[in-house]
Structures are given as C-alpha cells and as structure tokens.
Design brief:
2 domains; 6 helices; mainly alpha; flat
C-alpha cells in the first residue's frame, strides 16, 4: 500500500469519527431530547453488552467436542442475571460471573 492510499484511509477514518461523534455533540449541545428519544438511547449500552456476551455464551461448536465445557458459560450466566436484576451493578455482575465461571472450570 502506498503512502497516499494510507493517508486517504486515515483521513476518511478521522472524518467518520468526526461526523459520528463530535458533530452530534455540537448539534445537540444545550438542547433537550424528546423523552422517547432519550428512552431509546438508554437501551444502547445494555444491547451492546448483551451482544458481546451472547457471542461467547452460545458457541455451537463446543457442544460437539465436550457438552459440559460448552454449558459452563450458560450456567455461569444464571447467577449473573440474578445479581443484575437485584443490584443493577455492572461491577457485581462481573465479579459474580468470573467467580462462578472459575468455580465451574475447577469442577471435574
């Protein structure tokens, strides 16, 4: 790849970042969003987190090799769901999830 192509790609990346992150901040500065828009934007962090977690929970190739090791993430997710509903704390969800996952990995 030539330097010219590289600089074009970097420039377009910077322009995309500017257009998607900085410009909306300046446009919406000092304005109040409608209640439905604010409510809809509130769903973005949980949806992104769920998408990241679901990718690791449901690995279908693992079931053919060893079903127990494929079920460990799903079993570890159950206490995390309970903790999430009770505390609404991401920190406690991570602590409980890692602890249960580690304990399940240590079981024969």
């Amino acid at each position: 790849m030539s330097w010219g192509s590289f600089l074009i790609i970097v420039g377009l990346c910077m322009l995309t970042i500017l257009a998607s992150r900085v410009i909306p901040l300046f446009v919406l500065k000092g304005r109040e969003l409608p209640e439905r828009a604010a409510q809809a934007l509130g769903y973005i962090p949980p949806a992104a987190f769920a998408a990241l977690v679901a990718n690791d929970l449901f690995n279908l190739q693992g079931f053919s090799a060893d079903p127990w090791h494929a079920l460990i993430p799903c079993i570890a997710a159950l206490p995390v769901i309970v903790v999430a509903l009770k505390t609404k704390s991401l920190l406690w969800c991570i602590v409980v999830g890692v602890a249960v996952f580690g304990a399940l990995l240590l079981t024969p």
